[in-house]
Amino acid sequence: MKTCLLKFILLLSLLFVIQSCASNRNVPKAQDIVFKNVAVISMVDEHILENKSVYIADGTIIAIDDYENLNLPKKTLIINSDGKFLLPGFSDMHVHTDHEEVLSLFLANGVTTIRNMWGLPDHVEYREAISNKEILGPNLYTTGPLIDGTIPVWRNSFILDDPADVEQAIKQMKIDGYDFIKVYERLKSDVYQEIIRVAKEINIPVVGHVPSLVGIDAVLESGQQSI
């Protein structure tokens, strides 16, 4: 079978890896692994590939084939997977996580990508550390601070009440490394529209709630990428 570039996850193997680490910053070196005789749910179509063996080297799937057809290095870890299923990792599109120690628990539960919906500088650091294989965690994307109006729903929100202040604030959030801008419920309409304008100009997506003074129709027309 042709080389498969999809990244799969087997919960049993991840639990083994995570439990073998003394801390979240003790990332194990990549090892050649074979999941032997596993049922593969590929998401390409509705068929399950029964009793296949999946060979992974350096974090990439090299082959999905019958075990007898694989040419394996001597030190390959063989995981007997009879009666088990292998499937792509899950994505959680709305999380709030504030502690580095929690990140590996997403992996333990099969979640390999998360979108953090209230960002702080720590989240940008976590994202880079995960990318550099310095800590264990899922692929992490994060918004910037929650942006709200003068009387915010949540304490510690980033307050924008004047359209004149929007451009500098939004551009700084992109400079700070956030992946998205998050808008919230008590923004004024003129401030919201300026956020959308600046975000489009600098090519950073806007996500979040529907401000009550803007309304759903205007939000849908604005190009806000998710609600």
Task: Provide the gyration radius in Å.
Answer: 22 Å
CATH structural architecture of the largest domain: Alpha-Beta Barrel
Q: In CATH, what is the class of the largest domain?
A: Alpha Beta
- Report helical residue fraction: 25-40%
Average pLDDT, rounded to a whole number, is 90
What share of residues are in beta strands?
25-35%
- As for the number of domains, it is 2
| Main structural class | alpha/beta
The helix/strand series, from N terminus to C terminus, equals: EHEEEEEEHEHEEHEHEH
From the spread of the alpha carbons, the general shape counts as elongated
SS element count, helices: 6
Strand count? 12
Give a written overview of the molecule.
- This protein is of the alpha/beta class.
- It folds into two domains: 8-88, Roll (Urease, subunit C, domain 1); 91-222, TIM Barrel (Alpha-Beta Barrel).
- Helix content is 25%, strand content 29%.
- The protein contains six helices and twelve strands.
- It has helices spanning 11-19, 103-108, 121-131, 166-175, 189-202, 216-222, and strands at residues 8-9, 33-41, 48-57, 60-65, 77-80, 85-88, 90-95, 111-116, 139-148, 158-159, 180-183, 206-208.
- α4 crosses α5.
- The protein is elongated and about 65 Å long.
- The chain starts with 7 loop residues before the first strand and ends in a 5-residue tail after the last helix.
- Residues 1-22 have low confidence and may be disordered.
List the helices and strands and how they pair.
Layout: E1 8-9, H1 11-19, E2 33-41, E3 48-57, E4 60-65, E5 77-80, E6 85-88, E7 90-95, H2 103-108, E8 111-116, H3 121-131, E9 139-148, E10 158-159, H4 166-175, E11 180-183, H5 189-202, E12 206-208, H6 216-222
Parallel strand pairs: 2-5, 2-6, 7-8, 8-9, 9-10, 9-11, 11-12
Antiparallel strand pairs: 1-6, 2-3, 3-4
Helix pairs in contact: 4-5
